[in-house]
Specification:
39% of the residues lie in helices and 13% in strands. It is of the alpha+beta class.
């Protein structure tokens, strides 16, 4: 219990109590009643009685509640007075009308100061015999008794500080409340005598706002404000007037079901509130943040407008704990280098892999396909590989210390896009290259991986700000050529520029956030590379570095295929190899049924797939078999397209085969029917066994066929015999027939 605490009643059955503690004595307290309109003299309450009320939960002690304006500095009030004087001068009004609250306060303070500054007199006035104290103040100040008592009472009621004597004009209008309903005159018009604001000069005046109008606006706002909708307040006012500023008209006795459509009669200005009043009340109900949420939508607000005080590295141990990967289309056009004309191959896709803890860009890749998983695999492979050899491919010579990133992360964060499917992420985890956790963010929530998103901004700003050719212009300039016709950088030159920007960002950009106490203590520099080296040098378990072939196999997409007697069937094609045929899988599939295995494949080519034997940890490379040789050296998109065409052609051929088979069956049945009709006159035997003379009949039919064949030979050879001598001798066999495999000789010269 202390001074200025509020004593309030809790039980509604008891009288309402609202006291402010003014002073505390041994067994009594002095309080001032706050429920009175005019401040009254403080009175005393026994502490035992107060404790009894508190124990019975009839009263409760609350924290002090004083207006903030009472704690303002004198300069605040002086500024207010000066502003009012300037306003009165501009209106040609007398400055005497502007009162000075500080002067009124000081005058009141001089009146009661002899009492409140003397502890003995103050104790007598509150807890003892106050005889003569009030008269003494009246004689010293030459003020009236009413003035002295009112200043004393206001001083104790409003907090017992000097500023409590400031005239409480700041409370003006605080207790104003709107009327519940508009007041009607005898002639049926609304009474506008209490309407605020200047009178209307032209036209009919609008009705003043009532409490019912506020309730109608609240109801209207709940039902008519929709997310992701452009809000025009004037249109909302028209919609509000359509509901609450018109009356429904229908014939007497007619029901709603009998009406073809509702007819509403709009009311005049004196029956509705103005557009300005509607907007003012609506803005009181709907806050600025609510307007923003409605305009951009909840998801966009959470992504772009919500404040974030946390850190992306929360819960991570150090460098390589988590990498973030993402892709973006660069704002530059690239030149087609295999042409003498300035031609463009479009805007490339940049993949970046960034360490979350240190903001180090650990990997990159530039591609003209995708975004797809092939490009993401290239970026991850680059993030976990040596950068010296990578930079040498593009004519840059660096030291390992310039870009010391060749480690596999423990976690990977990516977008939930088409390239980062659950199947691909599962393949990465099954690859066992060191990545144990994959975090897939929600759709269209790039803020969940803000580290890599910020890195894109840094790289593009450093790379393309100095460029003058091929850079994408945000504002179209129709009097200039399109940037695709003014590009000068080739793909390798652009990659070299991006590498230099990455090296600059890693080695020379300053990062003052996310610094730990140990980094400050040991004087670590501000570049991401310094934080990276410091984190790796102090880690307990060093991050893994794997061979390139193991990384490649672990990052390739995985698929479940069927092992058949013809080979391993994947996407309609068959694969095998000499080493794989030594395994019992093919023979077991031929004799005991097909079985499934997991393989890795490349999305860029159909030539090979890879199978890893988990028992021996041996990786087998399988090639296309001869039956699928037509699909070598092709991309999977082409193969899928061709197989789809073949399936359609096969379906058409199967339909034709079915129709032909039906016609064949009909012909055979017809032949059988005709043959049966011709044999109806023949004698039939009733015996059950085989015909006894079937062998003789067979021999007779064979002799007939031999005779027919001999006749065909003699008739066919007549054209091969020619007369070359008078005695009609037959020419040699070499002259009769030529060599069917001989090649015609072409004479030279």
């Amino acid at each position: 219990m202390f001074v200025n605490q509020i004593i309030a009643s809790v039980n509604p059955k008891h009288p309402e109590v609202n006291y402010r503690i003014v002073a505390i004595d041994a067994d009594k307290i002095a309080v001032s009643d706050l429920s009175c309109n005019r401040p009254r003299r403080p009175f005393t309450i026994n502490v035992a009685y107060l404790n009894h009320k508190k124990d019975s939960k009839a009263w409760v002690l609350l924290e002090p509640s004083l207006p903030e304006i009472l704690f303002k500095d004198d300069s605040y009030f002086k500024q207010k007075v000066f502003a009012k004087k300037l306003k009165s001068l501009s209106n040609n009004a007398a400055n005497d009308d502007v009162y000075d609250p500080l002067a009124l306060r000081d005058a009141a303070w001089e009146t009661i100061q002899p009492l409140v500054d003397d502890p003995q007199k103050l104790h007598r006035y509150l807890f003892g015999d106050p005889t003569g104290l009030l008269q003494e103040l009246i004689e010293l100040s030459q003020r009236s008794k009413k003035y002295v008592t009112s200043m004393l009472n206001r001083y104790f009621r409003d907090g017992g500080i000097k500023n409590a004597l400031i005239p409480n004009y700041y409370n003006c209008g605080q207790n104003f409340s709107l009327p519940d309903l508009p007041k009607l005159n005898d002639d049926g018009s609304y009474d506008l005598s209490s309407k605020p604001g200047p009178a209307t000069k032209y036209g009919n005046s609008y009705r003043h706002v009532t409490q019912k109008d506020v309730e109608d606006i609240e109801k209207f706002a709940r039902s008519h404000l929709r997310n992701r909708k452009e809000v025009v307040l004037e249109d909302l006012y028209k919609e509000f007037i359509r509901f609450f500023g018109s009356v429904s008209i229908r014939p007497k006795g007619a029901t709603i079901e009998e009406m073809m459509e509702e007819f509403r009669l709009p009311l005049g200005n004196n029956h509705v509130i103005s557009s300005r009043a509607f907007k003012r009340q609506l803005n009181k109900i709907v806050s600025k943040l609510t307007w923003l949420r409605k305009r951009v939508g909840e998801k966009n607000y959470s992504r772009d407008h919500k404040a974030r005080t946390g850190s992306a590295k929360h819960g991570l141990r150090g460098a390589t704990s988590r990498y973030e990967i993402d892709s973006t289309i660069l704002d530059v056009y690239v030149r087609y280098e295999f042409s003498n004309e300035l031609m463009s191959i479009g805007r490339p896709v940049l993949y970046l892999v960034v360490d979350v803890v240190t903001s180090m860009i650990v990997g990159m890749h530039i591609a003209f396909h995708g975004p797809d998983w092939t490009g993401a695999c290239q970026a991850l492979l680059n993030a976990c590989s040596d950068k010296v050899a990578f930079c040498q491919q593009f004519g840059l010579s660096i030291r390992f210390e310039d870009w010391p990133c060749c480690h596999v992360p423990r976690e990977l964060t990516a977008d939930r896009g088409t390239e980062n499917s659950d199947k691909n992420m599962e393949a990465v985890l099954k690859g066992k290259i060191g990545i144990e956790v994959v975090n897939l963010n929600a759709y269209h929530m790039g803020v969940c991986k803000g580290t890599v998103e910020k890195s894109f901004d840094i790289v593009q700003k450093n790379a393309f700000s100095p460029l003058e050719h091929g850079k994408v212009i945000q504002i179209n300039k129709f009097d200039e050529q399109h940037p695709s016709r003014n590009n000068v950088l080739t793909s390798d030159e652009l990659t070299r520029a991006i590498i230099k920007c990455v090296l600059h960002a890693n080695n020379h950009s300053t990062r003052i956030n996310n610094r730990t106490f140990e980094m400050e203590r040991d004087g670590v520099a501000f570049a991401p590379r310094d934080a990276w080296n410091y984190s790796l040098s102090h880690c307990v378990i060093a991050p893994a570095t794997l061979p390139r072939e193991q990384l490649l196999f672990g990052l390739l997409p995985e698929a479940s295929v069927s092992v058949q007697s013809l080979g391993v069937r994947f996407n309609g094609l068959y694969y095998s190899s000499t080493d794989f045929e030594r395994l019992p899988l093919l023979d077991e599939s031929k004799n005991f049924g097909r079985q499934s295995i997991s393989i890795r494949y490349s999305e860029s080519s159909t030539n090979h797939i890879w199978y890893k034997d988990e028992a021996t940890k041996t990786v087998y490379q399988l090639e296309l078999t001869e039956r699928c040789e037509a699909y070598k050296n092709q991309a999977w998109e082409q193969v899928h397209h061709r197989l789809a065409i073949l399936r359609y052609q096969y379906a058409v051929a199967a339909e034709q085969s079915r129709i032909s088979s039906m016609l064949l069956n009909a012909d055979i049945h017809f032949l059988e029917k005709m043959a049966k009709a011709r044999t109806n006159q023949h004698q039939k035997s009733l015996a059950k066994g085989i015909v006894s003379d079937i062998k003789d009949n067979r021999k007779t039919e064979a002799d007939r066929q031999h005779y027919q064949y001999q006749q065909d030979i003699e008739k066919g050879m007549e054209g091969a015999i020619k007369d070359t001598a008078p005695n009609h001798t037959v020419s040699p066999a070499a002259d009769m027939f030529g060599n069917p495999n001989a090649v015609e000789e072409i004479p030279h010269g």
